[in-house]
Design goal:
Layout: E1 5-9, E2 26-29, H1 44-57, E3 64-69, H2 72-82, E4 87-93, H3 105-108, H4 116-128
Parallel strand pairs: 1-2, 1-3, 3-4
Helix pairs in contact: 1-2
């Protein structure tokens, strides 16, 4: 049986990924650089390099499942495309920034409704987890 590391990369809010912290795989989440107000380099490439360095420092060199939300998806996509040796699968949750006109504000408010994230994430894991 393979051991997977589920890497949670968030944007400004991590609540949507909270249910994933109950998964049966090793989980890893980190604060974005912006959590430290003195740091100004938020570029996805720089952040991705920091995340990869963290993974490597922990001895994690393969079978990473990236679950990224909102602005964290920029970092997640960068890691997935530049380090295919490291990443087993990548899941983007709520990619509204990529398709600004695809979902109206009224529809997008679903993702901020109390309990919506808790209801949606298990379904995503159930359906997309089969591809991991």
């Amino acid at each position: 049986m393979s051991v997977y590391t589920v890497l949670l990369i968030t944007g400004l809010s991590w609540q949507i990924l909270r249910p994933a912290t109950h998964a049966q795989h090793q989980r890893l989440a980190r604060d974005r650089k912006s959590a430290n107000q003195e740091v100004v380099d938020y570029h996805p490439q720089s952040t991705a390099e920091d995340v990869v360095a963290l993974l490597e420092s922990l001895g994690i060199t393969k079978n990473v499942i990236i679950m990224a939300h909102s602005l964290g998806e920029c970092t997640g996509y960068y890691i997935a495309t530049t380090r295919p040796d490291l990443v087993k699968a990548s899941i983007g949750v709520d990619p509204l920034y990529a398709f600004p006109n695809a979902i109206r504000e009224r529809d997008a408010s679903f993702f901020t409704a109390p309990g919506a994230q808790d209801a949606a994430l298990p379904l995503l894991l159930e359906h997309f987890g089969a591809y991991c």
